[in-house]
Structure to design on (559 residues):
């Protein structure tokens, strides 16, 4: 039996397969399909200080090997989460990680303080890469000084492992990764969605209410893989890889490129069992190739 | 409620009129309970242009053969590809999804208004409702006679009324032009599934008379089980997912 357990900057996971934020709700929806304790971690739907209605419909457009979304961080706000959702999900036997969002540094810090007080939350993922909100979000993720500043301030209030989720919509993602590493991030997760657009040629209108949205799915995998490889060369902290992972072979590629763990996002929309299939497939791969644990696979790309 | 991803075998693909196909799908295992108004999310085989699954209301369920039937109307590349599947092919379904209709109770007097593939969940409702056929009236609207699907085998569970825009079958005009629309007070439950304008007309009639009314909505979905938050409908309770909080909504919850 190979060892799938990993330690991501102090975050101990039974296996390295997590569900990506915004793709697995608060875990309850997946629990209708299977026992979520099999997952390495659940990245909960992004949370903001105040309730957000999200963007208008249509929020989604199917594209070649992927999709665009423009949800816009619809959520009931951190207080609602603490009061109504956390008590329901706190006993899931998997790592629960809260994806924290804000339009100002103060908001990020305030949400972090409220989440940091929750015993059963294993870590915080600081989302500085949402492309679908007008203020904050990605603005913090596309500038090194801004990324460094928000990480520095949140770090002061966060005693749990702090993961910073990076935007791919930058010239050099390694620079942003180094900037957040230097301010105390315990890990980075990448990539969030790529800013994209779809047009209805017949109607001559944008397909999304927001005109632009975030591209995800297999279409982005080669770029995400390249970025994971670049960042893992550039920083010492663990890298969590995501972007178009559909099966265990995709996952293995991310580990080889340097990821210490992976997240499954859009694939869940096609098949909610994908994370479990990937766990089984990783186990099988490690056995076939004579590895005793998943951590041996990270960065083992032969050049 | 337990949900699954399950393989089904196509046992029949019956071409109906006006670009509609009835797909009969047999579960490889036990068939989970499905309620009228609930839907399945179908993986579209053999078309690389289609990335996401496509949602379809369930039209018929046959527990004895572990089969369900979908009414597939060709509207885009997903439904067009699905309409070409042959008997023997396998399809992957995520199901049962969404909240179904509030079922009629004994003594209810029901009007169900439908059009297009929207007739599918209404016929399922009519078959499951434990009501005499003269207590459940199905009013179906279409452009022309050829667009109405054959309801012969349902005449033992409901009474049918038709409208066509060209007058080729039933009353000429829209469903709102049918005399039944002038007598809404005789009903205590109204259901609607079809084009948005048709549902809004039925809802407006129900609101005016204070009659219980549920409508089944559809829109662009990615996941179908409430995690992506793409298929939202503005409601009095905020933006709700059509897939998991619907597709059936009480009109009092909508902002129409």
């Amino acid at each position: 039996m190979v060892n799938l357990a990993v330690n991501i900057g102090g975050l101990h996971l039974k296996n390295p397969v997590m569900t990506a934020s915004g793709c697995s709700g608060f875990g309850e929806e997946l629990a209708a399909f299977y026992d979520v304790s099999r997952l390495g971690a659940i990245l909960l739907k992004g949370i903001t200080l105040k309730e957000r209605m999200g963007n208008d419909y249509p929020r989604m457009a199917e594209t070649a090997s992927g999709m665009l979304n423009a949800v816009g961080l619809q959520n009931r706000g951190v207080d609602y989460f603490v009061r109504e959702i956390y008590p329901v999900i706190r006993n899931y036997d998997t790592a629960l990680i809260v994806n924290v969002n804000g339009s100002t540094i103060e908001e990020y810090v305030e949400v972090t303080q409220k989440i940091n007080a929750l015993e059963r939350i294993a870590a915080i993922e600081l989302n500085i890469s949402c492309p679908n909100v007008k203020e904050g979000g990605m603005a913090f993720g596309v500038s090194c000084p801004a990324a460094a500043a928000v990480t520095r301030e949140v770090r002061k209030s966060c005693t749990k492992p702090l993961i910073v989720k990076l935007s791919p919509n930058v010239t050099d993602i390694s620079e942003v990764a180094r900037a957040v590493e230097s301010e105390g991030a315990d890990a980075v997760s990448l990539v969030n969605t790529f800013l994209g657009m779809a047009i209805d040629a017949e109607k001559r209108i944008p397909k999304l209410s927001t005109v632009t949205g975030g591209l995800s799915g297999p279409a982005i995998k080669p770029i995400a893989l390249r970025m994971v490889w670049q960042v893992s060369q550039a920083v010492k902290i663990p890298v969590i890889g995501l972007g178009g992972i559909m099966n265990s072979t995709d996952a293995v590629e991310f580990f080889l490129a340097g990821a210490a763990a992976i997240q499954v996002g859009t694939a869940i929309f096609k098949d909610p069992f994908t994370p479990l299939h990937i766990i089984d497939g990783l186990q099988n791969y490690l056995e076939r190739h004579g590895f005793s644990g998943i951590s041996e696979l990270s960065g083992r790309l032969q050049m | 409620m337990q949900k699954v991803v399950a393989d089904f075998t196509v046992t029949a693909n019956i071409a109906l009129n006006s670009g509609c196909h009835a797909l009969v799908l047999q579960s490889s295992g036990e068939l989970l309970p499905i309620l009228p108004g609930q839907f399945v999310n179908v993986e579209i085989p053999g078309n690389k242009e289609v990335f996401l699954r496509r949602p379809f209301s369930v039209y018929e369920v046959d527990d004895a053969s572990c089969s369900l039937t979908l009414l597939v109307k060709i509207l885009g590349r997903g439904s067009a590809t699905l309409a070409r599947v042959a008997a023997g092919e396998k399809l992957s379904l995520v199901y049962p999804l969404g909240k179904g209709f509030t079922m009629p109770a004994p003594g209810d007097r029901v009007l169900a208004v439908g059009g297009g593939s929207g007739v599918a969940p209404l016929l399922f409702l009519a078959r499951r409702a434990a009501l005499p056929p003269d207590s459940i009236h199905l009013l179906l609207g279409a452009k022309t006679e050829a667009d109405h699907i054959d309801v012969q085998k349902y005449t033992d569970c409901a009474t049918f009324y038709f409208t066509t825009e060209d007058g080729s079958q039933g009353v000429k005009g829209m469903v709102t032009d049918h005399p039944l629309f002038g007598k809404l007070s005789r009903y205590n439950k109204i259901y609607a599934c079809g084009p948005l304008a048709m549902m809004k007309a039925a809802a407006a009639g129900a609101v005016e008379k204070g009659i219980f009314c549920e409508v089944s909505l559809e829109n662009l979905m990615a996941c179908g089980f409430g995690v992506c938050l793409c298929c939202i409908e503005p409601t009095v309770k905020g933006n709700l997912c059509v897939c998991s909080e619907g597709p059936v909504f009480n009109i009092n919850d909508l902002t129409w």
Observations:
- The longest strand of chain A covers residues 121-127.
- Chain A has one domain: 6-56+71-198+216-296.
